[in-house]
Amino acid sequence: MLEINNLNVHFGVIHALKGISLTVNDGEIVTLIGANGAGKTTTLRTISGLKKPTSGDIILNGENITGMSAQQRVNKGISHAPEGRRVFPAMTVLENLEMGAYLRKDKPEIARDLKMVYDLFPVLSDRQKQPAGTLSGGEQQMLAIGRALMSRPKILLLDEPSMGLAPLLVQEIFNIIRGVNKAGTTVLLVEQNAMMALQIAHRAYVMETGSIVLHGTGEELLQSDQVKKAYLGG
Amino acid sequence: MEQLIQQIINGISLGSIYALIALGYTMVYGIIKLINFAHCDIYMIGAYIGYVCMSKLGLGFLPSLLASMLFCTVLGITIERIAYRPLRNATRIAALITAIGVSLFLEYTTMFFASANVRTYPSMTGFMAKTYKIGDIVISTQQILIAVITVILMVLLQVIVKKTKIGKAMRAVSMDKDAAELMGINVDTTISFTFALGSALAGAAGILVGIYYNSINPLMGVLPGLKAFVAAVFGGIGIIPGAMLGGYVIGIIEVFVSGYGYSMYRDAVVFAILILILIVRPAGLLGKNTGEKV
């Protein structure tokens, strides 16, 4: 599905991604864990086209998308729910979801996906007409995920969906991510909550200061001493 | 009492002009956080296009209005494309200085081609010159025209911004550029469109001023531009209804100050309002600060 080869990204003189490579296979949940500043968010932003890489390739279903705009990548099936939720605060919940389907023209299908999102997050359906800025943090996160699903993506990039949420809500969000994946969407998940992320992930990559230092199945990494020491508090 | 109503009517005419200009300031600020100082000169050019259409080409008012709006739309898009887009990722001060440069460029280019002399619009005849008396209150056709056209344009603008796809994209980009891009919105196109809308409104304001005050000159945009900017800040910069409200309030206050015998102070009062609003309510009348949710 998604393949990244030797990707380098710079912010001015800072070398943020140092030649990382990773693969996400069809139907997988792959998680990218690591400390603050490791380059996880930059990786996602480069995949979705918000940040241009200095070198390297991003390949989606065999097609090189490295030179494409963010807009073209949405059309190709990449959807990115960014860090910090980034819902449009002055727009209603419904309008936010409609923005997610911005490039689509198939009205009946959009209506179906809207219903699917409301089924997934009933609370959003209750708050359709409410400005997104008035939602609670957890509801905003649901809206951000719902909005990202409205483009009917092949691969969903999720950046820190658990950030700032109460433990119960975190559990709920992770259940939903698993559900979305079961329904057929491939997921690339960036998380600081390594324990939770590794539990739902098929495979995982560990990043440190711009490089991938470890990878394996979620299970393997949960058992790895290195990971335990650094990220799982044990 | 009659005098009060008369002043309000005059104030609405002036306020309409300010509101139309203020909308352009506020929309552009909302989307790229730039005070487009050249905006007031687009208004001036709009007045000149109206002058050419009505005086030289002998066109009627409505075709001239459309011509002026169309020309300003193209001008606005061109300015954004040439002057501001290359600076999209530059510091804000660089863009601001460029805006001042564009403003001077427009003013003195107009002076070069049209001379610095005051030009006068043809005097209105027939229907356009009519005045209506209700008791002691006098309303002219021009005043009605200004008020009606302004309201029509504002309603149109609201429909575009609230209901159309590109309008929603405008709001999305102004709230969060990155998130908008992730929705597949073409940010550059959306910004161009914003300049187009704002400039069309400024063009309309230009020709309306032409038929109302008759005389135009290449520096006519400076002071109304600043006042419209005050109006935008007063209502809350970046907020569309705020600019409308601010425009009318500033226009009415200005007319009141001059109407009741302090016309020397009318500019001072407007800028005093700016200072006051920045002290008391810096986010503007309709603006509010929203914190992050957890």
Polypeptide structure, described:
The complex is a heterodimer of chains A (234) and B (294). Chain A has helices at residues 40-48, 70-76, 93-100, 107-120, 122-126, 137-149, 167-182, 194-200, 218-223, 225-231, and strands at 2-11, 14-24, 29-34, 55-60, 63-64, 78-81, 155-159, 186-191, 203-208, 211-217. In chain A, a hairpin with a 2-residue loop joins strand 9 and strand 10 (211-217). The mean pLDDT of chain A is 93. In chain A, the strands form two sheets. A six-stranded mixed β-sheet of chain A has the order 6-7-8-3-9-10, sandwiched between helices. A four-stranded antiparallel β-sheet of chain A has the order 2-1-4-5, with helices on one face. Chain A contains ten helices and ten strands. Chain A starts with a strand and ends with a helix. Chain A has one domain (2-231): P-loop containing nucleotide triphosphate hydrolases (Rossmann fold, 3-Layer(aba) Sandwich). Chain A is α/β, with parallel strands linked by helices. Chain B has 294 residues and is mainly α. Chain B has a single domain (2-280), classed as ABC transporter involved in vitamin B12 uptake, BtuC. Chain B is built from eleven helices and four strands. Chain B has helices at 2-32, 39-56, 61-84, 92-114, 141-163, 165-175, 177-182, 187-213, 222-235, 240-262, 266-280; strands spanning 119-120, 131-134, 137-140, 215-216. In chain B, strands 1-4 form a two-stranded antiparallel sheet. Chain B has a two-stranded antiparallel ribbon with strand order 2-3. Chain B starts with a helix and ends in a 14-residue tail after the last helix. The mean pLDDT of chain B is 93. The A-B interface holds A 48-50, 69-71, 74-75, 79-80, 82, 84, 86-91, 95, 98-100, 102-103, 133, 135-137, 140, 147-148, 151, 164-165 and B 165, 168-169, 171-172, 175-176, 178-186, 290, 292-294.
